Amino acid sequence: MDRITTLQEILAQDPNNVLARYGLAMEFANSGHTDQALEEFRKLLATNPDYPAAYFMSAQTLVKANRVDEAKKMLVNGIAAAQRKRDSHAASEMQGMLEELG
C-alpha cells in the first residue's frame, strides 16, 4: 500500500489527525499533484490556523505552480500564525521566502 492510500485511510478514521493531513498534503505536493496538495493544506489550516509549517509548505507549492501572489498571501498569514505561536524560526523562514519573492 502506498503512503497516500495509508494516509487517506487514517484520515477516513480520524479526519482531524493533523500529522496525517499534513503528510497527505506533502505526499501530493511531492508527487506533483498541486491541486490536491493545496486542498489538503486548506483543510488543515481551516481546523488548525496556527500550524506554521502548513503555510510555509503551501506557499512553496504555490510558487512551484507559478501562483506567486497567492504564495505571498499564504506567507503573510503564516508569519502571523508563527508569531502567535512564538515560533521565531518559522516566522523568519517565511519572511525570508517572502522577501525573495519580492
What's the arrangement of secondary structure elements?
Blueprint: H1 3-13, H2 18-30, H3 34-47, H4 52-64, H5 68-84, H6 88-101
Helix pairs in contact: 1-2, 2-3, 3-4, 4-5, 5-6
How helix-rich are the residues, as a percent range? Answer: over 70%
Q: Radius of gyration in whole Å, from Cα?
A: 13 Å
User: Structural class of the secondary elements?
Assistant: mainly alpha
CATH top level assignment: Mainly Alpha
Shape: globular
- The appropriate CATH architecture is Alpha Horseshoe
Low-confidence stretches: none
Quick structural overview:
It contains six helices and no strands. With 102 residues, the chain is mainly alpha-helical. The protein has a single domain, classed as Serine Threonine Protein Phosphatase 5, Tetratricopeptide repeat (Alpha Horseshoe), CATH 1.25.40.10.
What does this structure look like?
By secondary structure, the chain is mainly α. Helix 1 (3-13) packs antiparallel against helix 2, helix 4 packs antiparallel against helix 5 and helix 5 runs antiparallel to helix 6. It is built from 6 helices and no strands. It has helices at residues 3-13, 18-30, 34-47, 52-64, 68-84, 88-101. 33% of the residues are buried. It has a single domain, classed as Serine Threonine Protein Phosphatase 5, Tetratricopeptide repeat (Alpha Horseshoe).
